[in-house]
Write a sequence for this structure.
């Protein structure tokens, strides 16, 4: 039942396809009205402030060029570095395929490094 509710919330919230290719930190397109002096209302939308940044991943030992929102940039700074942000943020809060894929790849890389260390000790 919970899986069905997750799917329904994604459709009602309007998950952006371009948001799946970057780290948007839950930010979505917001819709509303602009109101002029004569009180006429015109529909408009506010898109997230998306920047393209390059982050270095110590776990993967590569530079990654990622589209991120300014909110996510502040979250990465608060976490300390890019790897800490990806590893400590839940899949729900990452809310993108890119974030989930990066998290899984980093976990596999850490497991591989741990196995190499154990193999060297033996």
């Amino acid at each position: 039942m919970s899986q069905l509710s997750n799917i329904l919330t994604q459709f009602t919230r309007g998950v952006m396809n371009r948001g799946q290719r970057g780290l948007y930190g839950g930010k979505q397109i917001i819709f509303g009205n602009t109101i002029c002096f004569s009180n006429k209302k015109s529909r408009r939308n506010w898109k997230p402030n998306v920047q393209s940044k390059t982050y270095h991943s110590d776990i993967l030992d590569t530079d990654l060029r990622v589209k991120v929102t300014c909110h996510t940039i502040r979250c990465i700074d608060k976490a300390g570095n890019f790897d800490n942000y990806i590893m400590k943020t839940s899949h729900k809060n990452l809310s993108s395929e890119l974030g989930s894929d990066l998290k899984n790849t980093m976990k596999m890389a850490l497991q591989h490094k741990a196995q190499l260390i154990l193999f060297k000790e033996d």
The longest helix spans residues 97-121. The helical segments are 2-13, 70-79, 82-88, 91-94, 97-121. The radius of gyration is 19 Å.
